[in-house]
Amino acid sequence: MPERVHNFFAGPATLPYEVVKKAAAGMVNFKDSGMSVMEVSHRSGPFESMFKEAQNDMLGIMGLTPEEYVVLFLGGGASMQFCQVPFNFLSQDQTADYIVTGGWAKKAYKEAKLFGKVNAAASSEDTNFSYVPTKFSLTPGAAYVHTTSNNTLVGTQMRHFPETGAVPLVCDMSSDFLSRELDYGKFSLIYAGAQKNIGPAGVTAVILRKSWVEKAKTDIPTMMAYSTHIKEESLFNTPPALPVYVVGLMMKWIMEQGGLKAVEKNNDRKAAILYSCIDDSDGYYKGTVTDPDSRSLMNVCFRLPSEELEAKFVNDAKKADLIGLKGHRSVGGCRASIYNAMTIEGVEALVDFMKKFRAAN
Ligand code: PMP
């Protein structure tokens, strides 16, 4: 294996090489403390300042203010948010609206049913989630509306979020977090597992509108209450220290790129290169998303003429140092995940391989 391959895994996923190398240095000697970031107390000055900086940088990148919003770094994965959101915000006599656009959205929807009434305000399950609905039947006075901005398994992305008025809008942004410019201020709660766009596995970023949390349920376990973590500035218990450190480095990296505008431009370009290769292949490669406006810029899913060819494609690609192209086990086919850190060169290498593979097979 060479020192670095082109990594198309869906998450954990590729990180910028310079961030990996910086993280490696901090792993040995964190801020000149003579201790690695894995060894330093989370109550020590250098750690706390790094932690705060990561939170502030994240808010700054999103154009949000610390007066209105707070960033928590929690454990339990994005999957824990499937229950933590309704734990805090859905009572038995209330209804929450869920937009069901993929396997992960469906899991969130299922979990919420344990807490109150749940309405599927839109669903594309009838077509195996091959598009993102744009029409929603929202419940007046709902507790909140839950959306999933990018559907990792099927390769769709939401471009038109529901207009919810006074009803709080929640979004699972795990697989496209900080990949594009958005009006982040329209959301009352955003959560994202770090392991795709902003760092390693082990930490989930939760961005909350403080005024909404003031209205949350109080008769819930201490660790589940967002208010517990807000009160202690996300240091109620020992945080996922090492992952947060890398997330902090990733925030600096995004700012160095020129913020979300530059990151989005790069992501647009990469996706255009890859989708053109698929669309210009005379049907050899078939994109699985039926609606062009629903295509994900993060997870590009496609099929080949047969499952045998798909297996060969994935294996031959591996030999060319293009790793992680097998589709999720629940949907099959192939998937190239091209998150923020994937380089243009990586996408070009993939496209070059796809053309050669098609010619040879
Ligand atoms: N939501 C989405 C959109 C995801 O892609 C994933 C993970 N692939 C999850 C939630 C679950 O994340 P975790 O494994 O961190 O619980």
* Helix content estimate: 25-40%
Q: Which series of helices and strands comes N to C?
A: EHHEHEHEEEEEEEHHHHEEHEEH
- Beta-strand proportion: 15-25%
Write down the Rg: 21 Å
The CATH architecture of the largest domain: 3-Layer(aba) Sandwich
Q: CATH homologous superfamily of the largest domain - what is it? A: Type I PLP-dependent aspartate aminotransferase-like (Major domain)
List the bound ligands.
4'-deoxy-4'-aminopyridoxal-5'-phosphate
User: Spans with pLDDT under 50 lasting ≥5 residues?
Assistant: none
Coarse structural class: alpha/beta
Shape: globular
Tell me about the largest β-sheet.
Answer: 7 strands, mixed
Rounded mean pLDDT is 97
Q: Please name the CATH topology of the largest domain.
A: Aspartate Aminotransferase, domain 2
Q: What order do the strands of the largest sheet run in, or round the barrel if closed?
A: 2-10-9-8-5-3-4
Q: What is the number of domains?
A: 2
For the record, what CATH class of the largest domain applies? Alpha Beta
Number of helices: 10
List keywords for this structure.
361 residues; alpha/beta; Aspartate Aminotransferase, domain 1; Aspartate Aminotransferase, domain 2; 2 domains; 7-stranded mixed β-sheet; 3-stranded antiparallel β-sheet; 10 helices; globular; binds 4'-deoxy-4'-aminopyridoxal-5'-phosphate
